Amino acid sequence: xxxxxxxxxxxxxxxxxxxxxxxxxxxxxxxxxxxxxxxxxxxxxxxxxxxxxxxxxxxxxxxxxxxxxxxxxxxxxxxxxxxxxxxxxxxxxxxxxxxxxxxxxxxxxxxxxxxxxxxxxxxxxxxxxxxxxxxxxxxxxxxxxxxxxxxxxxxxxxxxxxxxxxxxxxxxxxxxxxxxxxxxxxxxxxxxxxxxxxxxxxxxxxxxxxxxxxxxxxxxxxxxxxxxxxxxxxxxxxxxxxxxxxxxxxxxxxxxxxxxxxxxxxxxxxxxxxxxxxxxxxxxxxxxxxxxxxxxxxxxxxxxxxxxxxxxxxxxxxxxxxxxxxxxxxxxxxxxxxxxxxxxxxxxxxxxxxxxxxxxxxxxxxxxxxxxxxxxxxxxxxxxxxxxxxxxxxxxxxxxxxxxxxxxxxxxxxxxxxxxxxxxxxxxxx
Length: 430
Hints:
By secondary structure, the protein is α+β, with helices and mostly antiparallel strands. It has 16 helices and 13 strands. The longest helix is centred in the first third of the chain and has 19 residues, at 134-152.
């Protein structure tokens, strides 16, 4: 009975995915908008993304993230306390996030115009007129320094940072969005204003919107939140990263376990090998304990409690990483096994049984990625920012189903040669 109910739920979700229409247009200022009408709840979820992520930091790592955090620390006629009070009194949620490609600010509000209108006014002010007061800058800097100190005490975070530096060298993706203690000292109100003037404009922005507003209202909303920004120009494209020669790096760290990373340059969002590599990675290490890595490293040999691999597609080639944690005494054995399994997969590819299981899991589970307005917003945000077609969600499962063993084998052989494999281990110290 439970199995039947689960199947019915999945079928209903699949129907919702097929019925969901993603609409797209450009604002008068040149910003792309993606919108889904969702009248089931009296809510609006809206996200503005700017090509102003940490890869735009230049000589001051951390300034993109610092500025994005400061959007919540006072804007327009509201200081930080007044802004927080206004949002809380109306039940409006606003959050920010900064990655390597994008800086984003997300709003969630009731669709009632008496609440939504002031919510949009405040969001527009945050984008166009952040106060950047000295006290707020100092406060956010201190939070960032605390996050940096916490990351330096985590073997996993240290390993991740070391791998990104090894993979990208002097490319803009190499540094951590948090920045460094030295760079944070150099960032001030003037440098933040310069960054804001350069990258916070309508041509450099995209909007994603899901909620209880019709198309006409959605167009008005998108224009409203961007109205205070200058039209401006798009940020220039990033250079392509250069693959590195294979090498192994180790960093002593006081921990009972060693964190192991294998890494290479992976894929970008419009990569022609996107689907063969995504499906292949699911088989290799992306499906957790049922993956090849999970079965061989954890289940059979008990060398790691957790092992996984993933692609992180970006504007240009993002990283592919395979990570595991193991006892210090087993680090070499585990690393050698991970490397051997990867080599075998690149040479031989998956079995037909493994491929069918991966397709079933990926395509069957896809509706869960669209099971709430928040999740839909996340999906169409990616589509809007990376200029993916409006039918991306409609065709995703069918494109997974079309992947063949030969495509996976060709893609992994061509795109992930062992001569570019980087190994990073962090741990083993007293």
